[in-house]
Amino acid sequence: MLRLLLSSEGYVLLEASNGEEVLRLLDDTVDLVILDVMMPGLGGFAACAEIRRRSAVPVLFLTAKAQDSDKTLGFSVGGDDYLAKPFSYTELISRVKAMLRRYYVYGAKQQAGGLLLEKYFVESGFQVRINDARMTNLQEYVNKNNLQAKDGMQLTQWVKKQPLILLEVYRNNILLYNSKAPGEWPMEENELEVPYYEWQSYYQISFADGTAEVLVYADDTYRWFLYLTLAALLLACLVFLLIFLQDCQKIVKYIGQLCREIQALEGGDLNTSITLQGHNELTQLAQSLDSMRLAFKEQREQETALFQTHQQMITEMSHDLRTPLTTLQIYTDIRV
């Protein structure tokens, strides 16, 4: 049914029966992963954690496990959304489209700088070193205040000072404390065992009432991605400023050139053309000035031609008048 529903929306599907097959199918062409928590072999949570180590592709959990602890764990291992069964098909399609839209538009980690940072954090064990130091600090805090594993209020005070996503305390696979819901633990009747995930790193912390296992989900890399985003914005602003200043310099230079050409026009030089540059208001003004120059030049040429015509006509008329007078004067001289 799910395959028919998504196919009818035009999506191309790749199907996997377990987590290992999901990881084999995962490549750069995959835009969204829909996981079930309870799968044979490698489960949904483990598969999501491995996916997140390889890619920033969005992950949607679609499962019958609807407890808050399951949802918290799903988000903590890198899931982007969690939809519990039963669900409406309209809601599923809406969430799929929203996740794809965010992935396409806001996928900042897909940028080259983000990928390099993510690769560095994974290969260098950056988060592991931070968590190790954090657990050492927690052990010192526990020893200093002589805390028991169920002292939720004191643990919550420590958690508030840490950039944690989630802190959980287990003993014999029974949850004793959860930082996302500290008021719900400890519960004396809480004897529900939770699965032990081998792919997670558990830390042994010595409390006053015995040793307990602490599971911490943290993402201390977000600050570096924030710095990367700020650096990209700063670089974009600098590039914009440089381009703006360069354009301003060109405009100022062009205005100076127009001033010199207008001064030549004022001095009567109609042969120097007005430079046309760009496609803006200054270009339109320069074009108008050049048209005016050409009109003045044409008018001057017409006036010069008319003047020369008048001069030639006067010369010819003078010659015609002078010829009869000269003849009469010669005839008079002969008679005398």
Give an overview in words.
β4 and β5 form a beta hairpin. Helices cover 58% and strands 12% of the residues. The chain has ten helices and seven strands. The strands form two sheets. A four-stranded antiparallel sheet has the order 5-4-7-6, covered by helices on one side. A three-stranded parallel sheet has the order 1-2-3, sandwiched between helices. By secondary structure, it is of the alpha/beta class. The model has no long low-confidence stretch (mean pLDDT 80).
Summarize the structure.
The chain is built from ten helices and seven strands. It has 336 residues and is an alpha/beta fold. It is elongated, with a radius of gyration of 43 Å.
Low-confidence stretches: none
Rg calc:
43 Å
Q: Given the structure, what is the number of helices?
A: 10
Name the shape in a single word. elongated
Features:
336 residues; alpha/beta; 4-stranded antiparallel beta sheet; 3-stranded parallel beta sheet; 10 helices; 7 strands; 58% helix
Helices, strands, pairings?
Blueprint: H1 2-8, H2 19-25, E1 33-35, H3 44-54, E2 59-63, H4 68-76, E3 81-84, H5 89-106, H6 112-124, H7 126-145, H8 152-160, E4 164-171, E5 174-178, E6 202-207, E7 210-218, H9 222-266, H10 281-335
Parallel strand pairs: 1-2, 2-3
Antiparallel strand pairs: 4-5, 4-7, 6-7
